[in-house]
Design a protein that fits this description.
Length: about 160
């Protein structure tokens, strides 16, 4: 199947918009029933993974040199040239969206269970996934070190 540039742009824009409600709920209203219910589902990740699968499979028909990804001698300039193709870039971007949101969900649930403040880590995870994860791991370590017996009180206020 050939994916034309209009469809590719629509899928790219749709994927970007699709993740925003989940991030909004986790960052702005983390302690509501709605957020807990929505973030308890794996359906958003399945939908994004399905889109990724579609883009991945169709990239074999749409991109010359996609087999370069399996080359054990792949060089950085070769990878950069491959990502210059919009289809490959869209596929890679959806990959980021799926995993950043999944890590964000994990951070969210960690905060819900332990009372660790997560909003800053979630915001970072939205814009720079690994930095959000690092922020959460550091926050969690500091929280465990200094919160001691106050965790149950803070979980109502801080997450």
């Amino acid at each position: 199947m050939i994916v034309d540039s209009t469809l590719l742009e629509t899928l790219f824009t749709g994927a970007n918009l699709f993740v925003l409600p989940f991030w909004t709920l986790m960052v702005l209203v983390p302690n509501t029933k709605l957020t807990r219910w929505v973030m308890g589902s794996y359906l958003p990740y399945a939908a994004l993974a399905g889109l990724y699968l579609f883009l991945f499979i169709t990239s074999f028909n749409n991109v010359e040199g996609i087999e370069a990804l399996s080359d054990p001698n792949l060089k950085l300039p070769d990878l950069a040239a491959l990502f210059a193709n919009p289809h490959v870039t869209a596929t890679g971007w959806v990959h980021y969206l799926v995993f950043d949101l999944f890590v964000g969900r994990w951070i969210y649930w960690q905060g819900q269970e332990s009372g660790v403040f997560t909003r800053h880590s979630l915001a970072l995870c939205l814009f720079a996934g690994p930095l959000g994860l690092l922020s959460h791991l550091l926050t969690d370590a500091v929280w465990k070190r200094f919160a001691k017996g106050n965790v149950s009180e803070a979980s109502v206020e801080g997450a």
